[in-house]
Amino acid sequence: MGVRVALLLGLLWGVLPLPVGAQSPDSADGGQATAAEVPAPGPTVVGGRRFPEFPEAFSRGNVLPHPQSAVRQRPGSYLNPGLYIPLLGLFFLWTWTCFWVDEDSSSLKVRNEFWTAAVIPTGWIGFLSALCVPGFIGYAVLLVAYMIPLWCYVLERNSKVPDSAKVMTPAHMRRILRRLGFPVGGGRTAEAGTGPDIRFLGKSDGRGGDDGRSKQVENSRGYMAAKELVYDAIVRRSTDIHLEPKSDEISVRMRIDGVLYAMEPFDLSVGNAVVNVCKVLGAMDITEKRRSLDGSFQAITEKRRIDFRVATQGTNYGEKMSLRILDQANSVSTLADLGLRKQLDQELSDVIHQPHGLLLVCGPTGAGKSTTLFAALNEIDTFQRNVITIEDPVEYRIENVNQIEINTRSGNTFATSLRSVLRQDPDVVMIGEIRDAETANIACQAANTGHMVFSTVHANDTITALYRIIDLEVEPFMLAGSISGILAQRLVRRLCTMCREPYRPKPEFLKKANLPAERISKFYRPPKNPETECPACGGLGYRGRIGVFEFLPIDDRIRDMIRDQGAMAGVKAEARKNGMLYMKEEGLRLVVRGVTSVDELLRVVK
Fold this sequence. Notes:
CATH class of the largest domain: Alpha Beta
CATH topology of the largest domain: Rossmann fold
Distance between the termini: 90 Å
Low-confidence stretches: 1-38, 69-73, 185-193
């Protein structure tokens, strides 16, 4: 239909005469003739029948333009600005993208040559398509050629950097929009909408409800500062926040990978307001500033729920507050995630799946003992076995596990709870910590009566933990019959794989550590003088932590030595004969593999 309309318009145009004064290519004056000099073409008459003229002039051997074609042509531009300007903008955007991919992949060490070779040629192919293919089809090819390699690169680089350095994510887009002044973030008030993408929940909001405490603090002075502080700590993978009063300010320190780092302090008024916000959320008395208080609250950010434990204590300058961050996303779910070597993993797994016994995990505060026990519980089929935990407080929630939180004020202690739990027909019982003689005796009795008991104890190594239980007035014969294995552990920081640097160790150190100098050519350490700040670790040189373990499986020979109250040196010698490695020896294996550094190992393991 469109072709027919075009032909009809052409015929109508052809029968119309040229206006007076119009130029024609056949003019006698310089090869140009006017419309008055050229007779107007008329219809052709053949045999008394009238035929319309040809749309174009006909000349044998040559095709000449129609005499009126000069009149029908209109002045114009070869390029369409509506298509050319967006194409030019895409060209400058693609050029900037190429520079960014080259610099970003070089700093992150993410296959720089590969991604540069992928982004540049595909972009040129897209632009050639946009110039050669008519209409918007070429633009579609251009967008596909531009976005697909860029998106693939972003996926790879985001997998190697922390959440704060990821790009093209919903959180990243929201941060950009907030910087531009757009109120995004999903808060319930104008103030909440302009701040970080995090929402506080009061203490009683554990099941998703709202007791009104979060609304009480939304209009307070320190609410925005508290949101920014907590969100920054989550982005930095911090486990603790410390607000410490000084004479003229409130200092802020965050524990990242087990080490405290100083942050920008608060003014006294703002810092005290932040403390009050956290106390209100944790259902604590804001008027009490001398007595120690504790509470808890939650927060929702990036579609996940994070728990916070709050503890305050009065000091000579004011009220000090510490926040423990319990992020389920950073928890260890299986034994394989602990980083145990193969033999050690098999030995520990054999103990976990025993029908009865006592497994102890020892180490200082913050060594990851509870995380290891939760990983052990995840190895058990909780649908076929009755698993009950007694914790202070409940840190991580596990599916199909009955978790009990003790409350010493109401008389619900570890010992009383354990005595009650044993009447609930449990198969596996986890005790958060053995602190007193009563709990230790009940745990050993439970292990001897057909229950599998997991617990923790504060001790430096496996042998010390063994005699620590004896010091808690547990009879040696009862301990010898109940104990199945003892695991000691520490947490060392992992070297950042993006910025670590190799160096040649000294032969004296290798000899002292009993390492073969001919087989070890290099160790790794954090960069001493980095040119730029590493986006993966934020310039710290370390990212994440890994466990260093020492496992003592209890065999019949060691049971006899415990029953006879043998010397600690004898038990240690027997364990070494069975192949037990000390924590420092396990740590040296990580140093040789480049997982951690010598300085970090010596900082944690003595």
